[in-house]
Amino acid sequence: MADRILSDFEISYIKQGVLADMRSDGRSCRDYRSFELRSGIVSNTSGSAEIKLERTNILVGVKAEIGQPNPLNPNKGRIEFFVDCSALASPKFEGRRGEDLGRNLAHRLSDLYENSNCIDLESLSIIPGQDCWIIYVDALVLEYSGGVLDCLSIAVKGALANTKIPKLTVIGEGEEQEIEISDNPFDSTSIDTNNVPVFVSLSLIGNQFIVDASHEEEACSLCQLSVGVNHKGSICSILKEGAGSFKHRQYNEAISLASEIGVSVIEKITLTNNTAPEKML
Amino acid sequence: MALKGEPHYVAPGDVITANLGFMRGHGTYESDGKLLASVAGVVERVNRLLCVHPLKSKYNGEIGDVVVGRIIEVQQKRWKVETSSRLDSVLNLSSINLPGGVLRRRSAEDEVMIRDYLKEGDLISAEVQQVNSDGSLSLHTRSLKYGKLTEGTLVTVSPSLVKRCKNHFHNLLCGASLILGNNGYIWISPIILDDHQQEQMRFQLPSTPGSSSVKTVTHVATIEERETIARLRNCILALAQSRILLYDTTVQYAYDASLKYEVKE
Question: Among partner residues A5, A9, A31, which is closest to B151 by beta-carbon distance?
Answer without folding.
Answer: A9
